[in-house]
Write a structure and sequence with these properties.
It is a single chain. By secondary structure, the protein is mainly α. It has two domains: about 150 residues, Orthogonal Bundle (Arc Repressor Mutant, subunit A), CATH 1.10.10; about 140 residues, Four Helix Bundle (Hemerythrin (Met), subunit A) (Up-down Bundle), CATH 1.20.120. The chain has eleven helices and seven strands. A hairpin with a 2-residue loop joins strand 2 and strand 3. The longest helix is centred in the N-terminal third of the chain and has 33 residues. The radius of gyration is 19 Å and the shape is globular.
Amino acid sequence: MYDDIDLGKRRIRLLSALLQSAANLRLQECTTICNPRQARVPCTPPLDTVSHAVRPDALARSADGGEPLPAPKPADTLDGVLIDFVPANPQVANLIAVRDLVLDSILTGAVPLGSPLDVQALAARAASRIADVRLGLEELVHVGIVVRTAEGYSVTRLSRELIADIDDVRIELEGVLTLRFAKRAPEPRVEALGTGARAFRLVVEDSPTPWRLQVAHDRFYSLLAHSAGSTTTEDLLIGLYRQVSVLMTAGLVGRERSRASACELEEIHRALADRDAAAAAEASAVHVRRTTLAGLRLLDVDA
């Protein structure tokens, strides 16, 4: 009984922290996007909170807070769902190279969780400027894969206890979304969610890089959350995703796992198309658990 009480208290604290984090994040985004020249730190690439895709209308700004770089050209699309961008500017290409270099180093174990990141060494490896490296790292900070420290940057840390709590809360919240979606979403939104599932499949079969998998995966859940019409639940899930972003990405990579993930997202869509909220919630819970297990196998997460 006491274990259940302690578990409940931990989850209440987790939810409270997530609400505060979501409020702070929205305030920070508003300040960065609306007043980039007044920001105390160099303006970083504004991101879509849920999809993590760089916005084409405000892709990136120079490290000194200059004018926006030219918008990229869409690369792969499926019925209007954006999958990735072809960089139209060398600085943007450098930013992407740094981002992918750091993410690949984490997923291959070359840079363990919690390890500090050497900005100068990354600049040398990516043949990029220091300013571009910082922009790439800030993009990873935004999605929760990298954190700022007093010394600079480091890879985020994870614990199995935190992951277990987050998974339980996430499953409950996504169950709320599937219920609201099944009851309220009009048919065009159901079709849009199917497009999101097909977009993830397209990435899996075409070019399943870790970042593109993450973007397409988060886009699917973004469509689900927006169509369910619950801003509070969406904000809480954003906070949860940020805390385990690196684990979620690790749980999608690999040919077999990425294809299995595509099947799992398609199963969620099929259940919602049939307006079966219970089946959709169960399919989503299965996806969460399998993604977590795959991520734990790939990453060396302390107990």
